[in-house]
Amino acid sequence: MEGGSFIRDHVLSWPNVAAMVLVYIVTISIYRLTLHPLARIPGPKLAAITRYYEVYYDVLRNGQYTFKIAEMHKKYGPIIRISPHELHVIDPAFFEKLYRQDGRWDKYDWSYRAFSAPGSAICSGPHDIHKARRAALNPFFSKARVGTQQEMMDRSIIILRERLSEFAATGGTVDLGAATSACTRDIACEFLMDKAYENLRKEDFSVQITNMLQQGGSVWRITKHVPWFGPLMRSISPSIMTKIADDGTTAFLSYVQESEQDTKNLLKDAASSSNPSTSRTIVHEIYNSKLPTPEKQYKRVADEVFTITGAGFETTASALRLIIYHIYANPPILAKLREELAPLAASSSAADGLPAYPDLKLRSLEQSQYLTCIIMEGMRLSPALGSRMARIAPDRDIFYGDDNVRIPAGTPVGMTTILMHTDKSIYPDPLSFVPERWMHLEKRRQLEKTYAPFSKGTRNCLGMQYAPFPSLFFLLFSHHSILFSG
Ligand code: HEM
């Protein structure tokens, strides 16, 4: 007893605890600045000491760390230390070294754990776990299989056309952002889950779901630094959440609940299916794969569905929005595009006065040179992730630049696509929308070495064959005239 009260009254007194915390902070700061394996790499001292440096820019200043990193490179050079544990590089020549198909590449658990979906391929840290999970998904996303889905995509695109025509007929204003988002969601859900969620048919295109998805980045940024925040949000029972949340969150939660129930039903269906050779949904594909049984349990599969649908929704929609805006804001680009598409429109029958889009072959759209340049330029300015994508070589040191700066095995090191895509030494006047950059084929081949809207290497985008761009553009640009307001 006496010993206990001595410890309480003397050792654990407030001044002593404060002094111990201070000694800990000073010791760890000195270690990180002097003896730590990354101590030689330049960067702000505060960033090398603590992650709260990043918290300030990303949480308190709402996602500004990417731009702060760009500033830091101007001061400290092409390779910098952006946190006690992580490096960042801004040199395009390094891209091919970091995002590769050969070798073992882990993801940085710290940043992907914040998506609160540890069972998914996209959030799998270790190379081998990711490889097995991705192998199970690959057949579903093959070009051949995606090709068979054209009719399904056409259906959604026709609904979009009908809805836009209704607005056009009344001279009304349409929230084109919400409409394109609804279209990409409907297509992705039907492709992945074989179910029509019909966001396109909703009066307001389920705009609340779009709004919620766009806020996902803030939750992710907070959860990186406050690990319990995301899981806490996901653990609150939907019945409680709907009582305290606003309309947008409620709409989003009911979508999540519906998707979770669908995943359960599809798992049951896959388990009782007599023909495991055909996988009509992503859930069937996983269930019929060679993955071991624990990988086919509901929780793991639900993480996969949640992240793959998430990966397919706003990425595609935001690229579409950006491209649509630039085309209508630049009449000469629109005129040139229409000129290119005109023969295709003329060759299709027009029963209702609109171009009969479904008669068109996707291939003729893909071969439209100017349309391709427009899509490439849009994807340059709209890569899916606005932040760095760190990779880790777990089993070997890697080296940067002519000076062979050593990056020790196990160190997370990232590059940021949007910074590379707006590097003015590669793209003169980088923030302008100039499809002509891509017209010259030899120059395009050169640019493509460091052009990576879908990332590159072992963790590149699985859905890249699938983004329904050409068809949508034909519809939007060959027929409609859109004026932006507000
Ligand atoms: C314009 C549209 C899209 C863009 C720009 C895009 C971009 C990306 C990028 C940059 C990554 C790498 C992420 C990382 O390193 O963490 C990625 C991964 C992924 N994307 Fe996409 N994506 C698009 C559309 C889609 C669609 C439509 C789907 C599916 C329906 C999809 C499914 C995935 C999946 C499953 C991964 C994870 C791959 C893995 O970790 O092995 N994406 N995407």
UniProtKB/TrEMBL annotation:
Q: Which Pfam families match?
A: p450
Q: Which SUPFAM superfamilies match?
A: Cytochrome P450
Q: Where does heme bind?
A: 461
Mind listing the UniProt keywords for this protein, alphabetically? Answer: Heme, Iron, Membrane, Metal-binding, Monooxygenase, Oxidoreductase, Transmembrane, Transmembrane helix
Membrane-crossing residue ranges in chain numbering: 12-31
UniProt keyword Acetylation present: no
Task: Recall the GO molecular function terms of this protein's record.
Answer: heme binding; iron ion binding; monooxygenase activity; oxidoreductase activity, acting on paired donors, with incorporation or reduction of molecular oxygen
From which residue to which does any coiled coil extend? none
What this protein needs as a cofactor is: heme
Q: Which PANTHER family does the record cross-reference, listed alphabetically?
A: CYTOCHROME P450 (PTHR24305), N-ACETYLTRYPTOPHAN 6-HYDROXYLASE IVOC-RELATED (PTHR24305:SF157)
Q: Which family does it belong to?
A: Belongs to the cytochrome P450 family.
Protein name as annotated? Cytochrome P450
What organism does this protein naturally occur in?
A: Periconia digitata
